[in-house]
Structure prediction request, 260 residues.
Amino acid sequence: MEVVIVPDAMAGGELIAEAVAALLRGKPDALLGVATGSTPLPVYQALAAQVRAGSVDASRARICQLDEYVGLPAGHPESYRSVVLREVVEPLGLGADSFMGPDGTAEDVPAACAAYDSALREAGGVDLQLLGIGTDGHIGFNEPCSSLASRTRIKTLTRQTREDNARFFERPEEVPHHVITQGIGTILEARHLVLLATGAGKADAVARAVEGPLTALVPASALQLHPHATVVVDEAAAAQLALADYFRATYAAKPHWQGL
Ligand SMILES: N[C@@H]1[C@@H](O)[C@H](O)[C@@H](COP(=O)(O)O)O[C@@H]1O
Prediction:
């Protein structure tokens, strides 16, 4: 696992956007797994700016969702489908046909989960999966004690996650209890995992994920199993990392051509 400590969220966004751009230059139809929440927004803004500036062509990129609420009406502005279309697909100048995600409105939820897991494989697998981290260490919506081998399935949100996400809804009780999320086993199949965490509120979760034991109690610790996992953190989110100085020195000495 590589840990990169950046000065702030903007710098993290630019660094990851450059990694995505480099991927697209080599593989124009790469499948990019995107995360929701506030943290990845600087990545999407920086990538859209690169597209506008002509430094990368994203016109053949394919986008896939990490997770989705169950039961929000189709077109609800806070469904993750709506969020990804608004924050990623449209700013990159892509159409809805470049985009895939689990169907949170399906009557048969298990079938929708299995269909999405298969669709990701049939699409050739995710090239780069961007991840955030929940304050309880979740990735996607894999809450603590999710199986490390899990596939895309329905999960029940913890009270903490519902409270954390209440800011996106008019009333806290509107946050759905259930979600569909790529499983941890599914996420681990992506060729490159890039987790971005910013702010002091994530420092504990980051330290447990990066330096703590591999445990289902901290789902993000599963990144320790992946051969190409990058964790990008700002100074505030890095505050509890015992090896921060080592991570800084390693990145400072890294040959530029290696990228992330
Ligand atoms: N399902 C999403 C996660 O993918 C995201 O990482 C997390 C943190 O969001 P934020 O970046 O807003 O803290 O929120 C939600 O739970």
About this structure: The pocket of GLP is lined by residues 35-39, 66-67, 132-134, 140-141, 161, 165 (CB under 6 Å). Residues 9-26 form the longest helix (18 residues). The CA atoms of residues 228 and 244 lie 19 Å apart. The first strand starts at residue 2 and ends at 6.
